[in-house]
Amino acid sequence: MTALAPVLMNRGGLWIGWAGAAAGADLKGLLTAFSKDAGYDLHPVFLSEEEIKGYYFGFSNEIIWPLFHDFQSRCNFMPQYWNAYLNVNLKFAEVTARHSRDSDYIWVHDYHLMHLAFMLRNMGLERNCGFFLHIPFPPPDIFLKLPWRDKIIRALLEFDLVGFQTMRDRRNFVECTEALVPEAKLSGRGNIVAISLKRRSIRAGCFPISIDFNSFAALASSPEVVKAAEEIQEALRYRKIILGVDRMDYSKGIPQRLQAIRQLFVKYPDLQEKVTFVQIAVPSREEIPEYFALKNEIEQLVGEINGQFTRPGWIPIHYQYRNLPRRELIAYYRAADMALVTPLRDGMNLVAKEYCAANVTESGVLFLSEFAGAAAQLQKVGAILVNPYDTEGTAKAIHRAFYMDTRERHSRMVKLRDSVRRNNIYWWVDSFLQAAFSRHLDDFPQETV
Length: 449
Ligand code: GDG
Fold this sequence. Notes:
By secondary structure, the chain is an alpha/beta fold.
């Protein structure tokens, strides 16, 4: 969860999380060294191979992830995954109970731990508990397909504050609550609303996550990154660079993006040999068959398109399947003339914000999918919205941006950077915690555009 590291560093605290390896792995030395440098403490939770399969790959990533991203047909509703999910949530709750006091604030992150507050309350503990969902929350017609819908919605209502990336997600959550929990009563308007249940009342709010703007901008201006960015531009012969950066995930729309690039060269031959598309895909969840199939599909498409258009001295698509060191990633951001951020559905999408922060020359163009949470904020301030399924429309938008006048590019990027600079990760954490602790619903900082 790279987004949260600067927040923890800034505030301290105890981070309880799965160590990312099976029980028995020797992580102790690494964790101690890491916590000392990081400025906060870490407490690992170890999972068995069986738990990793059923809870992490199974329930979390073969049920909740696809369903919440509107890919119902990719869901694998296996009953045994549900038991694994409950058991691991209980395990996390036990560790949390052991390592916290009544006065501590417990902030739970993401769809892997939706039952945590429920488990804590079952253990008789009354802790102030908040939850933030990093992925979208689906509308009732999708959520109601979940066999465990009642249990999940009621478990979420055990938190004192539930936070979402966009107003749309929060609205979906409220609508699902109304459909499944008849006793729930809604009050308030605006970013935060109250939901009253029989014995208690909880809050639901919209808190678009962000990045540490200054750290990206500073690194992008460092001599080392400037040099690396120049080397990338030189290696690509100073052609215009269009960049895509994603975890290898079907929600990110990489095949559709490649089809849009193909359309670009078919419909607008004037751009052949003038632009190069660089796609960086970070390996992810390779144990799940869907992800493996996606990698093959992408590699085949890249091969086809390069086979069709490559000419001596020009390869249209540069594809890298690896995790880049942070500095190298920022050098790519800096070098790119355009960023193509076109997920089919995304909670927020931090790559869009990181690209803007790193674009210190203020000359880049951001294309953003209508279906990324980030669109709700960035469409008002200069991002060019595209429908990722409309590959011809995306190609047309790229063609237009290629000839866009320098002043327009500049004024769009200035506005984008201003917005991300102001609504940064520290603003996000403050707005969530103020909503958790303030007495009145509208007593917390609003987003500034
Ligand atoms: C989930 C939600 C939401 C990527 N390639 C490399 C690399 N990255 C880093 C990026 C960025 C992060 O990974 C990806 O974040 P996203 O937001 O784009 O997507 P998810 O991983 O799906 O994250 C998403 C997010 O949670 C936060 O709430 O925005 O909607 O799905 O930070 O920089 N980092 C390095 N090398 C790479 O090659 N070092």
